[in-house]
Amino acid sequence: MADSSGSNPQSPGFTEKLKSWLCWSWTYICALWFAMVLTMVYVLRSPLKLQETVNAASVFLNTLTPKFYVALTGTSSLISGLILIFEWWYFRKYGTSFIEQVSVSHLRPLLGGVENSSSAGLFSSVNGDTEQRSNVAECKVWRNPLNLFRGAEYSRYTWVTGKEPLTYYDMNLSAQDHQTFFLGDTQQLRPEDSVMQKAWRERNPQARIRAAYQAIEMNRECAAAYVLLAEEEATTITEAERLFKQALKSAGKDTNLVVYIKRRLAMCARKLGRIKEAVKMMRDLMKEFPLLGMLNIHENLLEALLELQAYADVQAVLAKYDDISLPKSATICYTSALLKARAVSDKFSPEAASRRGLSTAEMNAVEAIHRAVEFNPHVPKYLLEMKSLILPPEHILKRGDSEAVAYAFFHLQHWKRAEGALNLLHCTWEGTFRIIPYPLEKGHLFYPYPGCTETADRELLPSFHEVSVYPKKELPFFILFTAGLCSFCAMLAMLTHQFPELMGVFVKAFFSTLFAPLGFFADKMESFMPSCLWHQLANV
């Protein structure tokens, strides 16, 4: 049975061998074909009058003035410069080369690139075992548990700076969340619910606010309308809190509304300085609705406890949620690293550590930092203030730049409060990259870093923010090529304009040297082959 299966020509081993043989032979076939073409061109040079054509071209080129060559090289430099500018702009905006992308899209199918990828998918599970891919799950967009209020915070930023902190893609995701969360059962919609369903989809904030007031006119107990007004019309946290309390009175037994409103009320209390009250509200909410862990209310609780400097309570929350079976986040990983760093950072000295080595507690802190950096490598630059912070988006991508912005925006103050913690982070965070030299292929403590984060982060973060990319991409070949071509053509144009006679001599010497091997090869062929054979081939 084994022999029959091993000799099956349809087996993956036979297919791979056949493909590798074809790829190997194709290179030599192309080289042989090219050599045959050159030979035939040389043999038929007399019937094709190649010598006369070359002589005529030489006479024509000799009659051209240096101004023509200056114009030619200058135009080439200009065109390649324009291509360089476009390539650089496209790379900065989309993270890839336009020429490379078009080449891969249109030339790869002709060269059999698609077939390779599809065949890998067909034969990836010969014995029925399928390999688990985590990239799809890793690139899922999550609701930011600490998202700000649009009217009281995001809009004020727009009034001051004139910049929009939220992208349309981010706001559209929020609209979909609100429709699903507040109006889940579309078969039992009341008239005011239909109005609110349209309100969440409106792009204009004023139109959304008008629709909310229209829903309240239809039903004074429309809780979703008060939620929208608290989020978007209220210009202060105090006003937003008042509207959320009004919404809570009208929410009734709608679990989704109650959870959302109580969470936002706890966040209002946190922002207004009533931190102990906020902690109590969050704990009560987690006890009342223990199955809603996917809302990540514990991340709100961790931030509030850190503000109280209740580190024992923070450790207790981490003990419950920093579990191998539960999904991780930057808040979980970096808070764990902060607690361990805080225990040793006040006395940490890189010089002393290099002399005596790291103690057990320092080693644990360094390992915790390496773990956090592996999960999200973008965070340290914000914590160390190597990159400027912006307002966090309403949605984040775990392990992406959007999550790093959201975490650092709320937790930078907690790292600064722990004496020496940022110094320890500064001395050790880059060591993570020596542990995982190929992060897209293999991870150390987590799955390989997903390659889709840059694209998603560019959709979530505003255009004026420079998205952090990991691993750092090298400049594409075509940008370097066009830059070199532009510089070379510009140099030729300048030299030809300044020294026309000298450049003419140089060009003639260059081409004579370039075609010397071809002349030598032709002379050898004529001496090797009988003259009668050349005569017969020429007559053919």
Automatic annotation (TrEMBL):
<dbReference type="InterPro" id="IPR011990">
    <property type="entry name" value="TPR-like_helical_dom_sf"/>
</dbReference>
<keyword id="KW-0472">Membrane</keyword>
<feature type="transmembrane region" description="Helical">
    <location>
        <begin position="502"/>
        <end position="521"/>
    </location>
</feature>
<dbReference type="Pfam" id="PF04184">
    <property type="entry name" value="ST7"/>
</dbReference>
<feature type="transmembrane region" description="Helical">
    <location>
        <begin position="68"/>
        <end position="91"/>
    </location>
</feature>
<keyword id="KW-1133">Transmembrane helix</keyword>
<dbReference type="InterPro" id="IPR007311">
    <property type="entry name" value="ST7"/>
</dbReference>
<comment type="similarity">
    <text>Belongs to the ST7 family.</text>
</comment>
<feature type="transmembrane region" description="Helical">
    <location>
        <begin position="21"/>
        <end position="44"/>
    </location>
</feature>
<feature type="transmembrane region" description="Helical">
    <location>
        <begin position="475"/>
        <end position="496"/>
    </location>
</feature>
<dbReference type="GO" id="GO:0016020">
    <property type="term" value="C:membrane"/>
</dbReference>
<protein>
    <recommendedName>
        <fullName>Suppressor of tumorigenicity 7 protein-like</fullName>
    </recommendedName>
</protein>
<keyword id="KW-0812">Transmembrane</keyword>
